[in-house]
Amino acid sequence: MKWLITGQQKLDLDAAIYIDRVQNADGVSLEAGVKSAINDFIVGCKTDGIWDAIKSSCILAGARTLDGALVPLKGTAPTNFNFVAGDYDRKTGLTGDGSTKYLNTNRQDDADGQNDKHYSIYVPNGLSSGKAMLGAIGLSPNRFTQILGEGSAINFSLNSSGGASVSPSNATGFMGASRSTSTDISVSSNGVVGTYSLTSVASSSFDIFVSARNLTGTASIFESKPLAFYSLGASIDLALLDARVSTLITAIGAAIP
Predict the structure, then answer these.
(1) Bond before 141 cis per omega within 30 degrees
(2) What is the mean pLDDT of residues 230-252?
(3) pLDDT value at residue 6
(4) Whole-angstrom Cα distance, residue 254 to residue 192?
(5) For the chain, domain boundaries
(6) What is the DSSP string of the chain?
(7) Would you say 83 and 60 are in contact if contact means Cβ atoms under 8 Å apart?
(8) Burial of 20 by CB count in 10 Å (0-12 exposed, 13-18 middle, 19+ buried)?
(9) Does the predicted model carry a pTM greater than 0.70?
(10) Which CATH number does the domain 55-235 belong to among 2.60.120.200, 3.90.660.10, 3.40.1180.10, 3.90.180.10?
(11) What per-residue confidence (pLDDT) applies to 201?
(12) How confident is the model at residue 151 (pLDDT cuts 50, 70, 90)?
């Protein structure tokens, strides 16, 4: 692991590079506590052996500006559709309007293996029923990757023609799904990881959207609740990722006056 000394802080090199890019986008330095939270997250993910599985990610909290929040932690920067500065809160993240606002992660649904894939989100206020916080869907045949509120449950789909519905729908915080086999997926919700039978299918080639889902190239069923983090990539230990992301968002909130 490589380190960089900046002022009074010893930072992991990847953390220092990311923090520098955020500060350049913001035009002002981050608080020491925010920088420490980011550094601890990255170092912790490396210690846990899950850092390399994260291929595309944004920490949509902590930065002082929307531009800073959209600096990618890993992977390509997302494309912003209609979010403005007033939609961003440093503690809770980026809040959509339920009709026009979303991010294109610029990562295709088939960028990761059919049976080697994960997604995760951190939603401080949970999900709305009938709305998608993340997704890419191909039709004819059906190829679903998404997470959405579904009545009294949450629907998780990952390289599948259907989904696994998990209760309760009022879950908050970290949520995610990971697939390492063709027969089932692991799902994390409300701090509990479960395994559900869900046969894999080939992914679509559509980009994955957040705060909405990409339905064959068009954004649909937009979410109106905040999103503070997302990650995409290879299969991952969801319990370890949950612990790291939840600690990250809590520490950012504590560090901001």
Answers:
(1) yes
(2) 98
(3) 59
(4) 24
(5) 55-235
(6) --EEEETTEEEEHHHHHHHHHHHHHHTSPPPHHHHHHHHHHHHHHHHHT-GGGEEEEEE-SSSSSHHHHTS-SBSSPPEEES--GGGEETTTEEE--SSS-EEEEEEETTSSBTTBEEEEEEETT---BT-EEEEEEETTTTEEEEEEEETTEEEEEEEESS-EEES-TT--EEEEEEE-SSSEEEEEETTEEEEEE--B-PPPSSEEEESSEEETTEEES---SEE-EEEEES---HHHHHHHHHHHHHHHHHH--
(7) no
(8) middle
(9) yes
(10) 2.60.120.200
(11) 97
(12) confident
Mean pLDDT, range 141-153, rounded to an integer: 93
Burial code (b: 16+ CB inside 10 Å, e: under 16) for 235-247 equals bbbbbbbbebbee
Q: How confident is the model at residue 8 (pLDDT cuts 50, 70, 90)?
A: low
Please say if the pLDDT value at position 33 is more than 60.
Answer: yes
231, pLDDT greater than 80: yes
